[in-house]
Amino acid sequence: MAGVNKVILLGHLGSDPEVKYLEGDKVVANLSLATSEAYQDRNGNRVEQTEWHDLELWDQQAKIAEKYLKKGSQIYVEGKIKSDKWTDEQGQNRKKMKIRVLSFTMVGGKPEGMQGAPAAPAASGASGAMPSASPAAAPMVSLDEGDDDLPF
Fold first, then answer.
1. Is 119 exposed, middle or buried (0-12, 13-18, 19+ CB in 10 A)?
2. Which candidate among 2, 49, 79, 115 keeps its CA 20 to 30 Å from the CA of 129?
3. How far apart (Å, rounded) are the C-alpha atoms in residues 84 and 146?
4. What is the mean pLDDT of each run of 10 residues along the chain (152 residues)?
5. Per-residue burial over 86-106, b = 16 or more CB atoms within 10 Å of its CB, e = otherwise
6. Is there a domain that residue 2 lies in?
7. How far is CA 61 from the centre of its chain?
8. With contact defined as beta carbons under 8 Å apart, do 12 and 51 qualify?
9. Overall domain count for the chain
10. How far is residue 9 CA from its own chain's centroid?
């Protein structure tokens, strides 16, 4: 039986995207996303917890992120958990978890300094407008991997 590896996040960027241009026209963007939740503890005090997530975007999505996303931007993300394993200089085995973004939607309006900027380009079936509505109403920037078994 196959498993499911799906992540859905809505949060704010902790910094501007770090974009690297690699050989063969490959582009990767790394982002840090903060998600927060609040609750009341046993004493009735409000407690807020923030989790940080490392995101990885590739190619067209990375280019869109570089052009339109800034620190503080709010985005809705769908992706999957990936792990990187390596051995550091001291011979220690290391492991880092990250989210491989399959699609994202820019929410919360245009970032500061973007007034009058052209709309975001279309990418993998997304409409050409820069989304500013809720995730359900906004088009998504999607990575079409073409490996689904849907009959339509």
1. exposed
2. 79
3. 24
4. 93 95 93 94 94 95 94 96 93 94 87 50 36 41 50 47
5. eeeeeeeeeeeebbebbbbbb
6. no
7. 9
8. no
9. 1
10. 8
